[in-house]
Amino acid sequence: TMANTRLWARAALLGALLGLLQGGRQLGKLAEKKLCADADCSHPISIAVAVQDYIAPDCRFIPIQHGQVVYVFSKLKGRGRLFWGGSVQGDYYGEHPARLGFFPSSVVQESQYLKPGKVEVKTDQWDFSCQ
What we know:
Keywords: Disulfide bond, Secreted, SH3 domain, Signal. This protein is α+β, with helices and mostly antiparallel strands.
């Protein structure tokens, strides 16, 4: 029917728009849940220092260089528990906009605990899409 055709056309258009918003890269979820310091995961759990370099395999991850300071905002649970989410501090404050991404917890050592990461939050596709 004509109503079904319009509905499918709208769904296709919405899907295309979401693809554009996500940079066209829909990548798999690393985990279903994460631990954060607050419900929005907007407060860092800790400050860590990179103990080794990490080369990001795709755009869900952030590259890290040995000695860089990393703000940890989330810790994935379940099958993704080896990965944390955060951002690297630039050499100069405000030099680059902070880019959030994931990295293996093994490449950093937490140096300062800011707020307990005890709030369990469900992940969604935006956590793992490339912007």
